[in-house]
Hints:
The protein is of the alpha/beta class. It has helices at 3-11, 15-21, 23-33, 49-56, 68-80, 116-129, 155-164, 186-191, 193-200; strands at residues 39-43, 60-65, 85-89, 102-108, 130-138, 168-175, 203-209.
Amino acid sequence: MSKWTEYFEADAPTLFTESIRLQSTLNRIVRHAGGRGAKLLEAGCGTSLTSILLADLGYDVTAVDLDLDVCLQARERIRRRSYPVHLARMDIGCLGFRDGAFAVAFSQGVLEHFDDGTIVGTLREQARVARAVVFDVPNARSGERPFGDERLMTNRRWRALVARAGLRVMSVTGRGFPAYSYVLPRFLFAQRLDTVGRFFGQDSIFVCTR
């Protein structure tokens, strides 16, 4: 059992909890997918729950991860409930797909575990195989490193890495609000969620294109 599978089993996320926690991320992916049936790629699938949620919404999802134990665990989860997710063991920095094969390549809780050079190369490779790249990472406001090696960087730093990869940022929003932010007027969350997310969210969601 790898360190990652031990981490996932200890955390034990479910489809229900992930659908709530990642609602903003899922919305960004869907918004740029171009309609149900579009081909999506999860680069670094971990539990595969995000891919499963999107497949359940009618998208053609491929999930890849390099960790063998993670892939085996994900395969069993997908097989047990017959979810229509294509799973492959693959290095997200060297994807075996043709240029433009997907509408969106996405990741959640992945890029913050790598150094700058790997992040840049991985973003560039995802942009090669997809029209849009969506990634969700903890930012400098998070203060938490549940796995241990997370790099908690500012949005400005992430923007610089996106630019080094030759991409442009279309939008940035956030999720995972600290408790103190809920003293803000309720209408801000109802009508200005993107703005509130950028300034208070502990996780940042970037949408990028070439």
